[in-house]
Amino acid sequence: MDACHASTIDALKDVAEDTLVRLVYVSRISLTSRADVTIFDDIEDQASSHNASQNITGILCYGNGHFLQCIEGTKDKILALQKRIFEDKRHKLFKVLIAKPIAERSFTDWRMRSLFLERWLWSPATKAQAVQLSPFLPFRPHEWHEAHTSQFLNVVQSLHNPPHVRAAGVTYNAFGNMLQHVAAPHQAFLLVQAILGVLTLIAVAWMFA
């Protein structure tokens, strides 16, 4: 059994199986998944069909190579889903930030919506509306503690409407809009870095020419 999954079981050992719980974990996208342009669509499709039948709600956030997922449901359903998630080779370096009983859900939509925290892909309008996310960027959730994670989720709840939620369509700026035709959001960052690297080499070569 995965050690991280085992620690969650231990943290909830005194909680009844039918108790409503919240689980928040973080992970890193795997190297092979960075080349998969359909990874988020696949995750959303799988989550939609599975979560509806299990009455599990939540949100999936991605940025800077990190995933943060919050899932809510009864303890037995959440632990079963966690085991399934932690066996998924599309991501790695799992860490549980929150595992506790809750009185009510923060996310009531059973579709696993996705929020992309790549600020440079947002339109000016999106940036203005999402100013509350600034303290959490660049997105490095592996370094967060429970209080910081809870603050982040509270902000996400207030932004749980277009254009921030990918279920309603990602808002791209002009450059991002061009890149979406050749790369997924998680790949576009790598493309930009490569382009900047090439431009830097050209500039250096021109200076010493």
From TrEMBL:
This chain belongs to the protein called BLUF domain-containing protein
Q: Which residues form the BLUF domain?
A: 20-113
Query: Which PROSITE patterns does the entry link to?
Result: BLUF
Q: Does the keyword Membrane apply?
A: yes
Q: Which UniProt keywords apply?
A: Membrane, Transmembrane, Transmembrane helix
- Keyword Zinc carried by entry: no
Pfam families xref list: BLUF
Q: Which Gene3D superfamilies match?
A: 3.30.70.100
TM regions (residue ranges): 188-208
Source domain of life is Bacteria
Which InterPro entries does its entry note? Acylphosphatase-like_dom_sf, BLUF_domain
